[in-house]
Amino acid sequence: MKNPIRQLFPRPEKVAAPKQGGLGTFGGVFTPSILTILGVIMYLRFGWVVGNVGLLGTLIIVTLATSITFLTALSVASIATDQRVRIGGAYYMISRSLGIETGGAIGIPLYIALALSVALYTVGFAESIVSVFPGLNFKLVGMGTTVFVAVLAMISAKVAIRAQYFIMFGIALSLLSLFFGGAVEESTIELWGASERNSESFWVVFAVFFPAVTGIMAGVNMSGDLENPAKSIPKGTFYAIGTGYLIYMILPVILATRADALTLIEDPLVMRRMAYWGDAILIGVWGATLSSAVGSVLGAPRVLQALARDGVLPRWLRWLGTGSGEDDSPRIGTFITMIIALVAVFLGNLNVIAPILTMFFLTTYGVLNASAGIERLLDSPSFRPEFRVHWSFSILGALGCLAVMFLINAVATTLAFIFVIAIFLWLQRREMKTAWGDVGKGLWMALIRTGLLRISHESEAKTWRPNPLVLSGAPTKRWHLIDFANSITHNRGILTIATVLTGSNIPTQRREKMQENIRDFLSKRGIQGLVRVTNADNAFSGAGELVQSYGLGPLVPNTIILGDSENPDIRSDYCKMVAGFNRMGRNVLILHDNDEGMVFRERKRIDLWWGGLKGNGGLMMIVAYLLQSSRSWWGSEVTIKMMVSDEQAAEDARANLNAMIKRLRTGAKAEIIVSGSRTFNEVLHESSAGADLIMMGMAEPDENFDAYYESIQKRLSGLPTTLMVLAGEEISYGDVLLQQDAYEE
Predict the structure, then answer these.
(1) How are strands ordered across the β-sheet holding 468-471?
(2) Most buried of 371, 430, 466, 674, CB within 10 angstroms?
């Protein structure tokens, strides 16, 4: 019999069983991380750093740079102990926290950076080899080395890691040789570097040194091959940072006491002259470049494999997610990475793209910090890491990464950001769906909560705009209502599409399915809005209950948009519903369709029949202006029409109306019509027969509203589509119009 407790609470992904036979902490995380940290900068540029900023300045730079790396490691440890980190390392962590779009936007540049890093390191190795053996061909050495490290990685990750043990031995031998070596010349310890004539600024030197401590991702990228990532990633990363920091704090003392500042600046291989066995330094340089190349060629294919399996890459590249052997090794991805690296090596100089590679790595670190910080700040119940870090440390790490990026190279930082944003937008347009959630919704919820609590319950003319609720029924049959509402919101107001299903036993699944169908319908037509489907025994009472209860705090629909109904059997219920909306303080806009089938014709002419600025008149002016400035009604002409009894009244009305239009700056035109012996109905039908939309005010509902509404419907018979406007909100629309600059786009 199955365990009922286990059925209710299945084992979550975050506590999945360790991968049997995987790599451990030392081989899988510590070794690749420390070998990437102790790289070519330590051998070829560390003397230059000490010479320029002196002993004290170097110790400050090392501490500051390592602090940023340490803060990132804290964030990595927090995420790694909250979830089972599978193949993909940093990409996997980011995508499961901030979503597939953000993860992909970081993961694709991260893969490119790792692939090109292989070439960068093998070119460095080739240059050092050729400097000792000038007879060798630079490109052949570089390409041969690239093939060697790639084949090593394809054979097995464990074999590559074992090869790194020999490299680590070479680096350790070079450091011991340096420690037991001697001084190059007599020197005094320079605390703040050489003379002004030969010294670079502190931040320039910091920018050169910082990439030396950015090797912690080499171990994280091996997450899919680790036996226990939640244990190995934090421990291995912290051990590597601590070891690297200790070495980087001791080396400046040795360098500063064995050579003067100018010698340290001018001789990149000054360590070879200081060492007990000088060639051991060459072994260390070669080992550092090879180990970094191996770390990159192990990490890059695994990121590529994860991107393909998650569907981030286009469908025709899904085969790149294939794994081989019991350890699921990404041999196809390794081969592709080798090809990319070989092309880059063949092209030669990578100095131009090297800063951008560093930017991609630092972008990854910054986003990892942001992921952990946001997760912790939101305090989501689902985020329960064993290694707890206060959100401020993670945010500080993210800001530190951002600052360092601009200090290193502002242009490269900008290019990296543009590339990442472009990928993010591309992935967002694909509307990818994932089986896991992300913190995006939680972040928006936090912002919404803050905004709602700060919104005043009192309406303000300066910030007023319509937040329509459309009673559309079946959206496909009354699309013109949604289209009209969208035109007056300009994608700034909050638009809600609502439907009332009649019946007492409508299942929840049917309502949810209809809501989903309406959302898809709106999405395909580029409409941004909320959807609400409810049920009631009576459609009219259900609509009233929906409008009365819908909203959150001060954020409620202020304008109800609905279609007209000429069915005399339901006119009384319809009018009661409209009167109810008015008593609730909602504006009501009723669209009476024309008899020609084309609801809005050509959308070129809007006739607004004027009755004064207060109430309905002011609201009509606002709606007309918003329509005229929308994309679908762009270029249309709004004419404010007013009927008077004689020419004397016409002159006064024309002057007043033109002055008002000029003051309100809506772009409308005035037309004063002398009625003579004609009735208003006759003037209306003659003057507005060619309009695409007519706008008219309605009287406030009273006990005779049914009869009044019936008379309006008779008046509108044979006219183009007419919008009937009933202002119900307690706000001065005249003041809103005087603040019309708020609607400028």
Answers:
(1) 530-536, 496-502, 468-471, 559-563, 587-592, 722-726, 693-697, 605-609, 637-644, 669-674
(2) 371
Kindly list the distances between the CA atom of residue 75 and the CA atoms of 3, 227, 300, 375, in Å, as whole numbers in the listed order: 37, 21, 21, 10
Number of other residues whose CB lies within 10 A of the CB of residue 56 = 15
pLDDT of residue 435: 55
DSSP one-letter code for 16: P
184 contacts 197 by C-beta, under 8 angstroms: no
Q: What is the pLDDT of residue 5?
A: 39
Say which residue the tokens 């290019």 belong to: 415
**DSSP one-letter string for 500-530:** EEE-S---HHHHHHHHHHHHHHHHHTT---E
Name the more confident of 172 and 733: 172
Report the DSSP pairing between strands 496-502 and 530-536.
parallel
How large is the average pLDDT for residues 157-176? 83
Rg over CA atoms, the chain: 36
pLDDT band for position 438 (cuts 50, 70, 90): low
Which one, of 299, 28, 302, 296, lies nearest residue 146 by Cα? Answer: 296
- Quote the pLDDT of residue 22: 66
User: Around Cβ 9, how many Cβ atoms within 10 Å?
Assistant: 9
Q: Inter-axis angle of helices 278-309 and 100-132, to 10 degrees?
A: 150
What domains does the chain contain, in order, with CATH numbers? 23-429 (1.20.1740.10), 461-743 (3.40.50.12370)
Phi, psi of 113, rounded to the nearest 5 degrees: -65, -45
Query: How far apart are alpha carbons 700 and 90 in whole angstroms?
Result: 63
Number of H helices, E strands in the chain: 29, 10
Tokens of 60: 């400050």
Is residue 343 classed as helix, strand or coil in its secondary structure? helix
The per-residue pLDDT of the chain, averaged, comes to: 82
| pLDDT at residue 318, as a whole number | 81
Give 472 or 613, the one with higher predicted confidence.
472
State the Cα–Cα distance between residues 266 and 144, nearest whole angstrom.
31
pTM: 0.64
520-537: pLDDT as tens digits: 888 888 888 999 998 888
The 10 Å Cβ neighbour count of residue 327 is: 16
Closest C-alpha among 716, 649, 729, 720 to residue 681: 716
Which of residues 402 and 412 earns the better pLDDT score?
402
Q: Identify the pLDDT of residue 7.
A: 43
Distance between CA 359 and CA 366 in Å, rounded? 10
Q: Report which of 348, 303, 291 is spatially closest to residue 141, judged by C-alpha positions.
A: 348
Pairing of strands 587-592, 722-726: antiparallel
Q: Which amino acid would we find at residue 45?
A: R
Q: Which residue has the tokens 């605390």?
A: 191
Element (H, E) at 44: helix 40-44
Among the ranges given (37-41, 233-237, 375-379, 580-584), the one the predictor scored with the smallest mean pLDDT = 375-379
Q: Tell the residue number behind the tokens 């700040």, with chain if given.
A: 377
